[in-house]
UniProtKB/TrEMBL annotation, chain A:
Keyword terms, alphabetized: 4Fe-4S, Iron, Iron-sulfur, Lyase, Metal-binding, S-adenosyl-L-methionine
Protein source organism: Pseudotabrizicola algicola
Alphabetized GO MF terms: 4 iron, 4 sulfur cluster binding; alpha-D-ribose 1-methylphosphonate 5-phosphate C-P-lyase activity; metal ion binding
InterPro entries assigned: PhnJ
Primary enzyme class: lyase
Protein name per its UniProtKB record: Alpha-D-ribose 1-methylphosphonate 5-phosphate C-P lyase
Catalytic reaction annotation: alpha-D-ribose 1-methylphosphonate 5-phosphate + AH2 + S-adenosyl-L-methionine = alpha-D-ribose 1,2-cyclic phosphate 5-phosphate + methane + 5'-deoxyadenosine + L-methionine + A + H(+)
Recorded family membership: Belongs to the PhnJ family.
Lineage summary: Bacteria, Pseudomonadati, Pseudomonadota, Alphaproteobacteria, Rhodobacterales
Automatic annotation (TrEMBL), chain B:
UniProt protein name: Phosphonate C-P lyase system protein PhnL
Organism: Pseudotabrizicola algicola
Keyword match Lyase: yes
Record PROSITE patterns: ABC_TRANSPORTER_1 (PS00211), ABC_TRANSPORTER_2 (PS50893)
Domain ABC transporter: 2-227
NCBIfam families: CP_lyasePhnL
TrEMBL record, chain C:
Residues in ABC transporter domain copies: 15-255
Highest taxon of source: Bacteria
InterPro entries assigned: AAA+_ATPase, ABC_transporter-like_ATP-bd, ABC_transporter-like_CS, P-loop_NTPase, PhnK
MF terms (GO), sorted A to Z: ATP binding; ATP hydrolysis activity; lyase activity
Name of the encoding gene: phnK
Phylogenetic placement of the source organism: Bacteria, Pseudomonadati, Pseudomonadota, Alphaproteobacteria, Rhodobacterales
Keyword Acyltransferase found: no
UniProt-recorded name of the protein: Phosphonate C-P lyase system protein PhnK
């Protein structure tokens, strides 16, 4: 292999040190003001916007050679996007990689929080398409900034009101807005609202990077995070009312998979590592095939 | 109740070379509570002008014009508004209302403006409309489509809805039939009986003779130079 | 005591404006405007396009900052307030009715959500209560209850304007700014709106500043009138007195230019 030779063509973790320094400053500021969107000078990355350029830059600025990196996309380690980003850092930073949540020191994620509880010392980096929770209600950036400044968040409840008026309940099921430490309203990125309860009081550092919109925001460990709701329509996390068909898990977030064109379907854990670990422990769901094939 | 002293009025027509037209000077008269004073004089002599000045609709050029304890000639607009709401009523010849508002509400409005409960105000309005022979089927309609006589009676009902201590009457019986004329004259007599001070213009001589205690000829207030 | 009596008993101006001046470079927006507005009063501001009436209104409502002058609301110096205070005021004690309802409504939000918006903006967090209040207000502005979940884009111009009024009045403001609220509406729709506004002003004891070029509107709605020309107030007084016995040359011209019907 010519890995080491190739890698010398790149700076560690792709970005130059000045850029990393700039991003780290934004990260430190975002940790100091939880939930506040800190602007940063997002760089061109060797991937298109919408593929996680914000998350990749945050990851690049955080990585040290001792890190062990995990990358997931909708909970899965084996999708194209996750595999590409993992390979990208394996090549440009030569860090170790893993698919095991508890072994990772840094996890970059798109649209999920792992089922396995995070621990102190871990960093979770979210890819964020649209960081501004007020955007769909108020298109003017000048106005949304003012609203954050003055804590004018009534509009978020207008959105929830519209949900209830139209659907009889709060139908927002992902990117469900939260209030951080009683101050900033924040978009948790398009994670399912099932994951919202995991945002608060987490021992891990949570960083959010939006490349196209050039914003970084954060939740330091053990932050209060409250999902917005009404007194008479309290927040409720939800998932498909099934067990995982592979590992039998009852409390994990499920993907629905259509298996044929005659209405056949199955529900499986969206967190592939969680599901595989359970199967390795011999847990079997309705359509489970047992340990021999389930574990890799 | 009404005391007018040395009142004068002129119009300045800025858009016609700034011509100044004096229309009244040295006007003086008083109206006591329970009294009805009729203004006489030829058409154009200044009867309506004087009435409008008392109501604050025209600005006085000089003199004083006291209604109750307020000098209308020098009062602030909001003091006149308060005076009109509580003390001084005006029955004009012309009905000026928001289109599409039901007749009953128009008559009740002066009471509603004083904070009278809605039911009570509408009861009083209904009572007056009944006395003035406005058919009940018309009460829910806007008076803008009514005949001239009907409109005038709606206007009278509105003017008498609140028991004003002072009332200006501009030809209240013009264009009314005998029966309704009688109702209006009775209303005027009732107002006098309860102590209201009335100042009016009546072309109808027998009506004038019946309700007026005194007559004042405004010709005496016309500036001599005007001719 | 009735509401009216209570209001009059206070006898203190709710708004006091002194020497208000706004320039756009060398051009005068409005100059040296002073007046007082008392609780329960409707003040009409008339003048032709470019007379400064809209500039004055936007300075009063805090949309623009005047170059000179003082504005006191309820004894508080408005121009010295922080933006937070002023914006809070504009969601609570103040209201602003735009000429074009699209400027004052959230067109992508249902009628009920539009009315509830101001309630939620001041902290209402009970869906049932918010909806109840919205339904009540839609009724008061004569919008059928079954339209509560429709978007304003499905409404006629008159309905949109009534919805904007409901949205503004739901938090029981004390001072309402109106910019040509009946402009752009059919005559018959205007009449209904005028009657509605008169009733609300009377029943709620609102203080209103209404800017319009329509003299018929101010005659029916305003207690007092200010006539503006070239950024300055040329005449003010009782509405019917200013219209029937105008003193200033410009007012005379303005009044005599109106077509009689």
């Amino acid at each position: 292999m010519t890995m080491s030779h190739d890698a010398q063509a790149y700076n560690f973790a792709y970005l130059d040190e000045q850029t990393k320094r700039m991003i780290r400053r934004a990260i430190l500021k975002s940790l100091a003001v939880p939930g506040y969107q800190v602007p940063f000078a997002s760089r061109e990355m060797p991937m298109p916007y919408g593929w996680g350029t914000g998350g990749v830059q945050v990851t690049a600025a955080c990585l040290v050679p001792e890190d062990r990196l995990k990358v997931i996309d909708q909970g899965a380690d084996d999708t194209t996007n996750a595999v590409s980003i993992r390979k990208f850092f394996a090549r440009t930073a030569q860090v170790a990689t893993t698919e095991r949540t508890q072994e990772a020191t840094l996890i970059q994620t798109r649209h999920r929080i792992p089922e396995t509880p995070l621990t102190e010392g871990q960093i979770l980096v979210y890819q964020v398409p649209i960081p501004e929770p007020l955007r769909f209600l108020e298109p003017r950036e000048t106005e949304t900034r003012k609203m954050h400044e003055l804590e004018e968040y009534g509009l978020m409840h207008v959105k929830l009101y519209e949900d209830i008026a139209r659907h009889g309940q709060i139908a927002t099921s992902y990117a469900y807005p939260v209030k951080v430490e009683g101050r900033y309203v924040m978009d948790p990125s398009p994670i399912p609202k099932f994951d919202n309860p995991k945002l608060g009081q987490s021992p891990a550092i949570q960083l959010f990077g939006a490349g196209r919109e050039q914003r970084i925001y954060a939740l330091p460990p053990f932050t209060d995070v409250v999902s917005l709701d009404f007194d008479d329509y309290p927040f409720a996390s939800s998932k498909a009312p099934h067990d995982c068909d592979l590992c039998g898990a009852r409390q994990s977030y499920l993907d629905e998979v259509i298996t044929d064109d005659r209405g056949g379907r199955m529900f499986v854990c969206s967190d592939t590592d969680f599901c595989a670990s359970r199967q390795a422990q011999g847990k079997v769901g309705r359509l489970g095939v047992g340990q021999a094939e389930g574990a890799k | 109740m009404i005391r007018i002293d040395n009142l004068s009025k002129s119009f300045t027509l800025h858009n016609q070379g700034g011509a100044v037209i004096p229309v009244m000077c040295g006007a003086s008269l008083t109206v006591a509570p329970g009294e009805c004073v009729g203004l006489t004089g030829q058409s154009g002599a200044g009867k309506s002008t004087l009435m409008r000045m008392v109501y604050g609709n025209y600005l006085a050029a000089g003199g004083s014009l006291i209604v109750g304890d307020l000098d209308v000639a020098s009062a602030a607009p909001r003091e006149i508004i308060r005076l009109r709401r509580k003390t001084l009523g005006y029955v004009s010849q012309f009905l000026r209302v928001v289109p599409r508002v039901p007749t009953l509400d128009i008559v009740a409005e002066p009471l509603l403006a004083l904070g009278t409960p809605s039911d009570e105000a509408r009861d009083r309005a209904a009572h007056l409309l009944q006395r003035l022979n406005i058919p009940e089927r018309l009460w829910a309609l806007s008076p803008t489509t009514f005949s001239g006589g009907e409109q005038q009676r709606v206007n009278i009902a509105r003017g008498f809805a609140h028991t004003f201590p002072a009332l200006l009457l501009d030809e209240p019986t013009a264009s009314l039939d005998a029966a309704n004329r009688e109702v209006v004259l009775t209303l005027i007599e009732e107002a006098k009986a309860r102590g209201a001070a009335l100042l009016g213009i009546f072309h109808d001589e027998s009506a004038r003779a019946r309700v007026c205690d005194r007559l004042v000829d405004v010709t005496g207030f016309t500036p001599k130079v005007a001719a | 005591m009735t509401l009216q009596e209570k209001i009059v008993a206070l006898d203190r101006p709710i708004l006091k404006v002194e020497g208000l001046t706004k320039r756009y470079g060398p051009r005068i927006g409005c100059a040296d405007v002073s007046f007082e507005l008392y609780p329960g009063e409707v003040l009409g501001i008339v003048g032709e396009s470019g007379s400064g009436k809209s500039t004055l209104l936007s300075c009063l409502a805090g949309h623009q900052r005047p170059d000179l002058g003082h504005i006191a609301f309820d004894g508080r110096d408005v121009l010295a307030m922080s933006e937070t205070e002023r914006r809070l005021l504009s969601r609570t004690d103040w209201a602003y009715v735009h000429q074009n309802p699209r400027d004052g409504l959230r067109m992508g939000v249902s009628a009920g959500g539009n009315v509830g918006d101001r309630l939620m903006a001041v902290g209402a967090r009970h869906y049932g209560q918010i909806r109840g209040k919205a339904a009540d207000w839609l009724g008061r502005v004569e919008i059928a209850a079954d339209r509560i979940d429709d978007r304003p884009s499905a409404f006629s111009g008159g309905m949109q304007q009534r919805l904007q009024i409901a949205r503004n009045l739901v938090t029981a403001p004390r001072l309402v700014f109106m910019d040509e609220p009946t402009g752009g509406l059919d005559v018959s729709v205007q009449a209904r709106l005028l009657d509605l506004l008169r009733g609300l002003v009377r029943d709620l004891g609102l203080s209103v500043i209404i800017v319009t070029h329509d003299l018929a509107v101010v005659r029916l709605l305003a207690h007092r009138l200010m006539v503006m020309k070239s950024g300055r107030v040329v005449e003010q007084g009782l509405t019917d007195q200013v219209l029937d016995d105008p003193q200033h040359a410009y007012t005379q011209l303005l009044v005599s230019s109106v077509l009689q019907v």
